[in-house]
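Supplementary Note 2. Why include the ligand at all?

Several targets in our set were suspected to adopt different conformations when bound, so apo predictions alone were not considered sufficient. For every target with a known small-molecule partner we therefore ran a joint prediction. The input for protoporphyrin IX containing FE is given below.
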Amino acid sequence: TGAVEFTGAHQAGIVTPAQDRLHFVSFDVITEDRDELVAMLQAWTTAARRMTAGLDAGSVGAVGGGQYDVPDDTGEALGLPPAGLTLTVGFGPTLFTTADGVDRFGLADRRPAPLVELPSFRGDAIDPARSGGDICLQACSNDPQVAVHAIRNLARLGAGVISVRWSQLGFGRTSSTSTGQDTARNLFGFKDGTDNLKAENTSTLDQFVWVGDDDQDWLAGGSYLVARRIRMRIEQWDTATLNDQEQTIGRAKGTGAPLGQQAEFDPVDFTKQVDGEFAVPQTSHVFLAHPTNSGTAILRRGYSFVDGSDGLGRLDAGLFFICYQRDPATGFVQVQQNLRDDAMNEYVQHTSSAVFACPPGVTGPDDWWGRALF
Ligand code: HEM
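The joint prediction is reproduced in token form.
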């Protein structure tokens, strides 16, 4: 129920122990006026500081003003604790230059080279209407109403400057980002996040997650966010035998142990054989995703979603995959390319795609989201 500190060297919501609920939103910037954009980011920062501390979005509040004033908070979080609310902002490639090369806000020479649209991958079925965007906000909280309230109020503050392009609700974290957390299960019923990068391992985070000072100055201490809405073919998965499911993932469903080992956190041994076969099949998800074979590591922070059903009697369900890395090319893209022959591909399909550069954390009381960029 507590509050997570909003300020710091890095933005909260990346290595913060993953909360249980997500409201993710991607915006198009609709103004052409750079000053309006800056003013909105300043107003957002003030409101984000307040809401992550459990306060109303504005200083008057939902019911603190006059009877004939429009309230500066929408009210549905009145009386609710922040429940670990974090708000994380990111800037998409199109904020810097449009697809046809227009420098919209004089930021073109500030665009970090790695911030480019992701390539397409085998099996993708990307819906452009829920992909991309100029600015994203990731709200995570242990209370869904708190996360939704935060996004709603920030979108409201941006009226005339931004419009919502697409958004995604997530329930049930599919990753842990701290060694203090239990590993949750995804919609395939498997523990997910066992071998994730964790907050406690700071040297690995410096190596794989935080952008160094060799890139654009304004991004040092930041990170890149990749978001992929991955539809899971639940009904098909549910007809697979337990053995097939475990061979697909490369871990035991009950314990989460790597196949051939006993306990969840036992190290994976890709050389181990059982009856002349590799215990962890070379086509399994874990085999192909593991740093030994992908040559890299990412911090996963995704959530399960069920967006009702699809009109054909199937759940429109899956994993809203989010990962953080210091460079998308050597992070998500490299792992995803290595997963091209993943046995799990039979059961999943990526339906949206986006990439954002997340600036470092807000530090002093006058600092605001993106100050060093503008
Ligand atoms: C590991 C599920 C998509 C990268 C795992 C594990 C499960 C899992 C159950 C094993 C537990 C663990 O170590 O966390 C899924 C499901 C997905 C999905 C259900 C889609 C619906 C992806 C994607 C990527 C990815 C798109 C990256 C491109 C990884 C990595 C590991 C992992 C890096 C850790 C491997 C290791 O070090 O052993 N995933 N995953 N996963 N997954 Fe996924």
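Residues 34-52 form the longest helix (19 residues). The CA atoms of residues 12 and 63 lie 29 Å apart. Comparable summaries for the other entries are listed in the accompanying table.
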